[in-house]
Specification:
This protein is mainly alpha-helical. Helix content is 36%, strand content 8%. The chain contains seven helices and five strands.
């Protein structure tokens, strides 16, 4: 487990909680101390973010209530970039396994798959993107850099796949879980028939579609 490219932990609900967050923050504080650095870390007022944590090299600063969506840099593009790149890998995985899957539930996704997708998705959040988010959140006056192309890349793979007969846009797919505390399955009310370029696995006697 120590060789994984990300810090791995879990709980029954898949939610972040104060125990996991505090442990991570203490470990991060030790890393910063070894680097002989001191940092200011901005946090929102999520229940898992305890204001009573004692740290040596990290100072915590909490955003005012009900302002996170406007002034938290991560909400100005970093999270969406991460999610778009993670879900592009998810869609590519579904497409790659569509020939042997009748429904979305038949596509196996392991925790290890998710770990490596997370690593790749986080690497896509470049320093340039992060600087841009701080600009959008009015932290500085740097010139805003051009928008990244992660949504275009996600749209390019989503157009090959339908679930329940519909093609979902990258914007909708990335925002699908904005109002819930953790990502869930696709809408269980829809019939989860996979289709690649309009050819579903329930079709018989037809040539298979080709994915480029």
């Amino acid at each position: 487990m120590k060789k994984l490219p990300v810090t791995w932990c879990s709980n029954r609900t898949s939610w972040m909680n104060s125990y996991i967050f505090t442990n991570w923050l203490n470990e991060f504080d030790e890393i910063i101390e070894k680097q002989n650095r001191k940092i200011l870390l901005f946090l929102d007022n999520a229940p898992a973010h305890s204001p009573d944590i004692k740290l040596k090299n990290i100072t915590l600063k909490f955003f005012p209530s009900n302002t996170t969506a406007r002034i938290q840099p991560l909400d100005q593009g970093a999270i969406k970039t991460f999610k778009a790149n993670y879900r592009r890998q998810l869609v590519q995985h579904i497409i790659a396994n569509a020939n042997t899957a009748y429904s979305a539930d038949d596509v196996a996704i392991t925790a290890l798959d998710a770990v490596f997708w997370i690593e790749c998705a986080w690497k896509s959040v470049t320093e340039t993107i992060l600087r841009n988010t701080f600009k959008e959140a009015a932290f500085n006056n740097e010139d805003v850099v051009p928008k990244n192309t992660c949504f275009d890349e996600l749209n390019s793979v989503l157009k090959h796949l339908t679930i329940g007969g519909d093609i979902m846009s990258a914007t909708d797919f990335v925002s699908i879980d904005d109002d819930v505390p953790a990502f869930n399955e696709w809408d269980d009310g829809n019939e989860k028939i996979l289709a690649i370029d309009g050819i579903s696995n329930e079709d018989t006697g037809q040539d298979e579609g080709t994915i480029v």
